[in-house]
Amino acid sequence: MPHPTRPLRKLGFLTIGLFDPADPAAGHESTLQIIELGERLGFDSAWLRHRHLQFGISSPVAVMAAASQRTSRIELGTAVTPLGWENPLRLAEDLATVDLLAGGRINPGVSVGEPMQYDTVKHELYPDTADLEDFSYARVERFARLVAGERVREFSGKQGVVEEFSNRVEPHSPGLRDRLWYGAGSTKSAVWAGSHGFNLLSSSVIFPDKDQEPDFALVQQSQIRAFREAAAAAGHVQARVSQGLVVIPTDSASPAQREKYQRYVDERTPRTAAPQGPRGMMFARDLIGTSDEIAEQLYAHAGFQEVDEVAFALPFSFDHEDYVQILTDMAGKLGPALGWAPGKAG
After folding, report:
1. Which of 91, 142, 144, 199 falls between 20 and 30 A from 299, CA-CA?
2. What's the CA gap between 47 and 271, in Å, rounded?
3. Intervals of the chain under pLDDT 70
4. Which CATH number fits domain 10-157+165-337: 3.20.20.30, 3.40.630.30, 3.40.50.620, 3.30.230.40?
5. Which residues contact 344 (CB under 8 A, 6 or more apart)?
């Protein structure tokens, strides 16, 4: 276990951006206000989950663009964008544009694989190519090449009087490729991310190897170590790792909030008792309590011992005032208990 004086370097938070379908604008505005609050409190990063055909953020690129104009320092990321829903070239254009507008603060996190509940949506998502789409690592490799500014085609130059064409994705944002993250849940995907120049997002959901003891913290630790070894072997010496657990400090919470938060945790705890499904999916326990209590649990967590930056996940279904309280306690009490110091306003 690291000594408690070992500092946490970066503190971030992750939100799903929940909204009421009867009034979605209010939910999106709440998310933007939460990001603004995060910057005022000194958080290093704010991350957006990506949800399709649900009541959460379906267009994090648009939300990040809006947030970039209401903040000046806090980094903005996605955790994660499932590339199975995206055209890699168009996504590369959008992210580069927003990164330039944000002054180089965008951290795109992605994953691959077949879209969730694909059979129910493929007729609209890919009506002519549903059975031909490649949802393998090749899709994210193509995306990374496009972000890096590699050649898309041979043709470039002027055509006619005013039309000028490029042979790479435009605009190009230097440095964005180095800020690409991969959301890995298995050792295989962690090693792939490390060997292909991505940073690692390790969340509260992972898949153990068949021979591993079903201990979430130890499995997460082993995946992070495997990532770092692969990254080092590939020469990716500045590879970053972020851990994303659900953390609910209650220092300044009202009695009603504490009861609400505990009920949320109690409802979710049974799923952490044993691996789930054919792949043995494992869920981390939500951490709830005072900041000192949570800090003690984190220092004892084998996964946390491997990182120096986190993006703590906000609970899905809480209200705006709950998030204000949780973030305020994270920045004012939990972060300092972990050796973190707030960033200065830009």
Report:
1. 199
2. 25
3. 1-6, 345-346
4. 3.20.20.30
5. 42, 73
